[in-house]
Amino acid sequence: MKATRKTRAAAPGARRPAALSVLLAAGLVLLPATSAHADGIRAQQWALEAMHTQEAWQTTKGEGVTVAVLDTGVEADHPDLTGNVLTGKDLVRFGAEPGDRAWARHGTAMAGIIAGHGHGPGNGDGVIGIAPEAKILPVRVILEDGDPSRAKARSTRGNALADGIRWAADHGADVINLSLGDDSASAHPEPSEDQAIQYALRKGVIVVASAGNGGEKGDHISYPAAYPGVIAATAVDRSGTRAPFSTRRWYATVSAPGVDVVIADPDEKYYEGWGTSAAAAFVSGAAALVKAAHPDLTPAQVKTLLEDTARNAPAGGRDDSRGFGFVDPAAAIRAAGRIEPKGLHAAAYGQEYFGSGPDAAASGDGTADWAAPLAGGAGGVLLVAAVVLWRGRRAGRED
């Protein structure tokens, strides 16, 4: 079936609601449904096993961490997200509203990947996120492609993304997920966005972005993925092979699932999607788990941990298609335990151990104070070919 791009979105400026930034959020195509039995949604979430979530969850499920989802909005009342979505910010301020079909589809999908908790304890239905006990802070910075208001907006660059990053950093975000980007031929760095990201990093906020879906269209650089300090996620399939659409560039940090990913929708149905948007959301969930287990880590340390513990590293340790390999939050949590300081304190010892020796015992030298050094690390885009997956029933095609 011919695929069509449905949600190419653009971000309006916070003070000029008609000014849009060319940021790609998603393409959504609904194909004929496949049958799914009662627990089919969970069974098809291959990323949970691939990312060793059961092992990571023995330490934490993300409690105490807030992930800001800068996107098209998030449906807080979705059964898989109830109780996990905080009061956010709408920097678009026009277009679709809650209840409209063009409201929060992409953002809800990303929130579900990060912090979905399913339909409740003992209920096999629904999407489980990588960090199901984390909180989602929604920040609306772009419109869905199906939003009729897009036709009225100018395609000039605005400040919504930069403003959203700063707002999230100032309102409790530990991780910022940017499943969006501009990888058009005219894409270029925006100083206001770069500065906003550096502001967030200085405040201790981890920033994750999708590497781009231009792998078959010239591998154009995508922003915000290319800004310094950002953890850029590329997409792989369940065999660990780079997805053909996934952009290959020098800024690639790690890879994550981006093919046949089960996503939640505000219509309370489920779809299979593909794209580096999904990969970014998985990496944000992984970063949330590491941060929950080791809250004192800096963004640079988390980035380095994810790089150093990634599985299936390319030959030579890194390449532009998969970065340092497949993200592994469980391994990163273990490694973080080895680098964090534990009970370090200044201590004084007598000259039995630290003096100048027995011959100098009468010299009158005092004890030597010392402190151990701290060890630390250095430091869009969901195009979904979607399949309805809903309680084992075959549904008709939806637009």
From TrEMBL:
Family statement: Belongs to the peptidase S8 family.
Domain Peptidase S8/S53: 62-325
NCBIfam families cross-referenced by the UniProt entry: T7SS_mycosin
Spans through the membrane: 370-390
GO aspect biological process, one term: proteolysis
Positions of the catalytic residues: 71 (charge relay system), 106 (charge relay system), 277 (charge relay system)
Subcellular location: Cell membrane
Signal peptide region: 1-38
InterPro entries assigned: Peptidase_S8/S53_dom, Peptidase_S8/S53_dom_sf, Peptidase_S8_Asp-AS, Peptidase_S8_subtilisin-like, Peptidase_S8_subtilisin-rel, T7SS_pept_S8A_mycosin
Top-level taxonomic group: Bacteria
Name of this protein: Type VII secretion-associated serine protease
GO molecular function, one term: peptidase activity
Membrane topology qualifier: Single-pass membrane protein
UniProt keyword terms in alphabetical order: Cell membrane, Hydrolase, Membrane, Protease, Serine protease, Signal, Transmembrane, Transmembrane helix
